[in-house]
Design goal:
alpha/beta, Peroxisomal Thiolase, Chain A, domain 1, 2 domains, globular, binds oxa(dethia)-CoA
Length: about 350
Amino acid sequence: MKPPHPRTRHHLPKRTVSIIGTGSYVPERILTNAELEKSVDTSDQWIVTRTGIKERRIAEKDEHTSDLAAKAALAAIENAGIDANEIDLILVATVTPDMFFPSTACFVQSKIGAKKAACFDVSAACSGFLYALEIAQQFITSHTYNTILVIGADKLSSIVDWKDRNTCVLFGDGAGAAILRHRGGGHGVIATHMGSNGDLSDILYIPGGGCRFPIAADNLDQRLNAIKMNGKETYKQAVNAMLNAANTVLEESGLNYDDLACIIPHQANLRIIEAIADRMEVPLERFMVNLDRFGNTSAAAVAIALDEAHRTGRMKVGDYVLLVVFGGGLTWASSVIQW
Ligand code: UT7
């Protein structure tokens, strides 16, 4: 019999995949609800009671998604104690790439000097970080790569309609990153679940800028290049999808909610998090929440929250952590990790 091709490595046992370092970055400029009151017909009271958001970070004009991503990546590299040249693959989950191409991951590679890495972007809106985490996990489990940098980064301020009070109060800019590697000891990603529903693509989307509605004066006049959202329907779908995704991945892991030290959800709306906490019968204190300070940063949200949970000691070695996300597509995903 022919020996297996060394590149496939199918003959080797599957490996567990650990997060060995995390990092995040948010721009310095803080945009408060009080400032938004001056530009659209809204109030601090409405925003806080309907969303839980008090302020968000806004990138400078010349501060691009790849800049936010590279800063988060460098923090994760330092936290993991590795050299950028050890990275085999860079994945950037984003809906606000610097350009259509090259990928934002390629710009990040150049900015952090990860010369050995292959690079590409992942498009799954707010769920992108967990989609990228699962892709990375598959590459490491199969022995294709050893060290992978996964980033969730978005500059939503560049695609928000600042005249639309239904959306402009919700979003912010930022990036979060994780370094993945096989570490052994049984720790790591236990299970991941991903799902999508393309039938509901029109409740949360940006119609313009692609080939369907290209950049053209009439499309720009209609603000087709900005986020459109049916808030109520998105809210309903988010609660159900995140709850189902969490239940599914827990079942696959053989765990229940009492086993979890920390739940890190997508940071879109405090009421969504409260609703899933209530239906899970888990106290809100066990959820990582930072949307009051950063708003909804899309693919970055769960990654920034993961980094904050890690750095503030929310989970100890051996603890089980659940990440659960939801976004445009529709897309959703969940992961259970033993820290
Ligand atoms: O990241 C991807 C996932 N995204 C989400 O999960 C977001 C999900 N949706 C939501 O979080 C909520 O639906 C929103 C926060 C977007 C909206 O909250 P809501 O409680 O669903 O409000 P609504 O859209 O039903 O609007 C209620 C009222 C409306 O006025 P009328 O028609 O009742 O007179 C809106 O025009 O609130 C009004 N409104 C506002 N008022 C003040 C909407 N936005 C604002 C605003 N300030 N910024």
